[in-house]
Amino acid sequence: MPRKVINIITPHYTPEITAAAHRLEVAAKTLSRAYKVNVFTLTERGSKLKNHQIKCDENLTVNYLSVRSYSKSIFFIRALFEWWYSLRLVRQSNKVKADLVIVSVPFIFLLPVVARYCNARKKIADVRDLVWHYLPANTLLETFVKASLTLRMHRSLYKFDSITVTNEAEKRWLLSNTKLSEEKLKVIPNGVGADKFLKLSQMKHVPHTNKFSITYIGNIGSSQHFFSLIDAVKDMLDVRLNLIGDGNEWKNVEKYIANNNIRNVFIHSKKHWIHTLPFYQTSNLLFASLKEEYDTAIPSKLYEYLATGLPILYLGNGAATNFLGTYKNTYLVLSYETRYIEKMIWNIKRLAPARSTNNIQTIGKLFLREKLSTRFIELAAGLLNEKNLSNLFVEDILLSTEF
Questions:
Q1: Which residues partner with 244 through β-bridges?
Q2: Whole-number pLDDT of residue 266
Q3: What angle (nearest 5°) sits at the alpha carbon of residue 21, between those of residues 19 and 23?
Q4: Quick one: DSSP state of residue 274?
Q5: Cβ count within 10 A of residue 378
Q6: Mean pLDDT across the chain
Q7: What is the mean pLDDT of residues 123-152?
Q8: Helical residues (DSSP H) of 234-318, grouped into ranges
């Protein structure tokens, strides 16, 4: 009996260097062990590819759609482009007949476009972020736009056969704010790839002898608190802060550092993952934060941080704070005031905590992406009613990756 076909529609996929891209790559490779998988995705903005279709192996094909460069800082321009490219992705995927389609955000218009125009009989919405919940509502116009988009997103979700979220807080929010049934919602957490975990957990830690090094690696965007941290460390002469990544706040942070003549804070552009490893190896403390409106989010970067065993300073409230609170070597600051951050850093310096082997072991046991992705196989098999095929393709995979 031929393998059934799954189409994956996502705006983010490798070679893009983002958590969303790597998460979907692992999911696609795992699903291709049981199904024929076609990925329909976008290039990075302004990137050009010689080959827009790449056959990774017998059961996995990736189809790229070129994306022109556009501004992401202006909401309405960004929304227009996201809607247009969402429509093009769905039209392209409709050319390949599939038994099941999995669509993954964070493009805010991708879910409603798939719900309306996708031809597949069965559909899964992979809600990696509740992006409509995070939209600002500071003005009357913003409030209207957020309410309208929220209504549209929720109506779209009802048309999917199953919805996956990354944590229990997202599940609770959807249960409280929509009429979705609990049976329809499945939690498939973020995590870290097995190859990265191996390198991070076994890295040689060689921190600077005369500098206390704090490192942030990830998106430098409006959802994080950077200025409070910078103000907290700028007068600590024996502290060095490295900010690595890109995002819509990158230039503002760079300008702030230069205008205030801050000598111990360094901002670096986004790097390929392997080039971030030396920063991990020389760090005394890892930093992460989220603003209060992102209360349901648990950044995938936290799993990577925990895999190092290094101490983590987290600034914020919500699901991420609750998650980190279950681990050792994590230091949580609930206030965004500089004096509280400064006090916590002095305390961590005094304690000089060692790496936590318990954190490393827990991440290795529970949060490897390759293991977590088998839940997509289990979910797909249930929706496709694969009683016969499961003996050949599905059960062997699930049993061989139990954890």
A1: 217, 268
A2: 96
A3: 65
A4: G
A5: 16
A6: 90
A7: 91
A8: 250-259, 277-281, 301-308
